[in-house]
Amino acid sequence: MGATAFQSDSSAIPLIDVDAEDAVRAFHLLGGRKVINQTVRNSLDAHDVIVKGISSKALLHLVDTVSVLSSGDALNKAIGMSLRTLQRKKADKGKDRLSPEQSSRAWRFAELLAQATDVLGDQDAAEAWMLAPAIGLDNRRPIDLLSSAAGAEAVENALTRMEYGVYA
């Protein structure tokens, strides 16, 4: 049974994980249960996967399905990993795990890509947006901002403003 919150009249109200949808979408971009070997239903499940370290196989799945990550520059900015390191992980057949920091960055990238896909209509448009200067980000490319938590938050805020029709 899920967690509940109580009102003053003692009637139970289920708590809703507003980030659950983002966590599930990121989970699927990283290969889902087939690759991660665990079910992610909410942000707490995502936290457990990230802290344990997502498998290199999940990152390889993400890179294979997201063309913007095929460039070493974008991969380094988004995940904090060089193309050469990714190639070594591929040669190892994705058997090892990413560090919690790399896992967190990969997960965050997947969440932002999913959000951009929702806002812009499809993944190709979302990937193109990640590589183009964005007015709402002082003409900076979203991909360039993903190397820090503050930059990733700015990208998320820009997408939220776009979703609601506020560009400045």
TrEMBL record:
Transmembrane segments: none annotated. One of its GO terms (molecular function) is DNA binding. Residues 45-110 form the Antitoxin Xre-like helix-turn-helix domain. InterPro entries: Antitox_Xre, Xre-like_HTH, Xre/MbcA/ParS-like_toxin-bd. Residues 115-165 form the Antitoxin Xre/MbcA/ParS-like toxin-binding domain. This is Putative toxin-antitoxin system antitoxin component, TIGR02293 family. It comes from Sulfitobacter pontiacus. The lineage of its organism: Bacteria, Pseudomonadati, Pseudomonadota, Alphaproteobacteria, Rhodobacterales.
